Amino acid sequence: MFEPAPYRRLLPLAAVLVGLAVPHSAAADKPDVRLDVHGQVRHIVAGAVDDPATGDDESALPTRNELLLRRLRLGAKAKRGDVRARLLFAVDRGKPRLLTGTLRWKLRRGLDLELGQHKRLLSQGYLDSSKHQRLPERAELHDDFGGNRDIGLSLRIRPTRRLDLRLAVWNGAGANVVGNDTGRLWVEGRGTLRLGSRFSTEDARIGKRFAALLGLAGVSGRKSAVRSDKNGLLTRADDHLGASAFLALRWRRVEARFEVLWSSDTPVDARNDTSTAFGLTATSQLGAVAQIAWQPFATVELVARYAHHDVDRDDPDRWGRVLEAGVGWRPDKDDARKLQVAVQQEQDGRKGGQTYDRLRLLTQLQWSF
Predict the structure, then answer these.
(1) Of 177, 125, 192, which Cα lies nearest the Cα of 146?
(2) Which of 7, 18, 63, 30 is nearest to 359 (CA)?
(3) Residue 282 burial (10 A CB sphere; 0-12, 13-18, 19+)
(4) What pLDDT digit, counting tens, does each position of 357-367 carry?
(5) DSSP assigned state of 7
(6) Strands 163-170 and 300-310, bridge-based pairing
(7) How far is it, in rounded angstroms, from Cα 124 to Cα 218?
């Protein structure tokens, strides 16, 4: 389906990155370079409804029926000695961008250092690749709690085979980090504890033996944003705090996972076009996701998920919830090829106690080679 020649252009770039980073003593090691392509094609059917927030009669519009190339990923990995380089590009809805570009050093057994643009650590739901999601898309609220890639330095320590500790310092200026131009670094940490049999939340197959995973994370930083209000453009800088807790359990081909996320933004400076703006208050949000999956056969799974997002804990009208159920088919018993179908019901709170309800049918085909 794809011509391999264009992707070979990534080989020299990955090899150069490794060659520059590896000490001369490792020059005799032959680099191990690998390429991969991953694509997702999605079909969406959604009936138009009236959104109270816009005041437009959207229910008069035709039913949305859209077929699109959701994502095409081109990846390259190179290894030489104790250094690994990784490049990952994506075309999302026709827009190309760099997702990941890192160098990782294995300093010693159980100690790694990674430099470059890669994923932040707050949410396990976001850390898991979209390739390994059990529904066509991850819960949308993960993006609202800082789920994105950033440029920084992260340290991973594995004191035991069951405990994984990560500490990262970010500059807040990654490719999909918007408005964090305050000049203040972000600090983030995450700890993960595994119990029972070997277990990863990205495993395609759900095992029969008991396994559990517990994760805790926190983040602190300062962010800025430019918004419009009645007095013109408002530039606001906030001290940001965030925390999350994650629990996943597997047993007898059933996987259950739960995640709770919290964040708070306290304004430290706010100005409009002409003067200082006063009267701004701190805001906080809370989110929760619960998901259960069952594999009656190695190639088939049934999945249900519920997500609730309290967008502003001081405003009872701002909230959202999504209920989703679907089925997935893996002919190869892994995520190389996968067909997913899901029904999604979304409900959002609007001013005055009104709600916005939407029903969608999603079908997604993905492949990798």
Answers:
(1) 177
(2) 63
(3) exposed
(4) 889 999 999 99
(5) G
(6) unpaired
(7) 12
Report the distance separating Cα 177 and Cα 226, nearest Å: 13
306-319 confidence digits (pLDDT tens): 999 999 998 898 89
User: Given a cut of 90, is residue 270 above it in pLDDT?
Assistant: no
Residue 109's nearest CA partner among 80, 82, 77, 79 is: 82
DSSP H stretches of helix in the chain: 10-21, 124-127, 141-144
Q: What is the pLDDT of residue 12?
A: 46
Distance separating alpha carbons of residues 88 and 73, to the nearest angstrom: 7
The token pair at 116 is 């470059």
Tokens linked to 242: 């965030």
Are 219 and 146 contacting, i.e. CB atoms less than 8 angstroms apart? yes
- Distance between CA atoms of 164 and 219, rounded to whole angstroms? 17
Long-range Cβ contacts of 12-16 (<8 Å, 24+ apart): 13/76, 13/87, 14/76, 14/77, 14/78, 14/85, 14/87, 15/78
Distances (CA, A) of 83 to 112, 228, 279: 10, 46, 51
Q: Report d(CA 361, CA 246) in Å as an integer.
A: 28
Q: What is the mean pLDDT of residues 156-185?
A: 78
Q: Find the distance separating the first CA and the last CA of the chain, reported in whole Å.
A: 11
DSSP state of 276: B
Tell how strand 283-297 and strand 254-271 pair up.
antiparallel
Q: Give pLDDT tens digits for 199-236.
A: 899 999 999 999 999 999 999 988 776 665 555 666 77
Above pLDDT 90, what percent of the chain? Answer: 52
In the DSSP assignment, the letter for residue 24 is: G
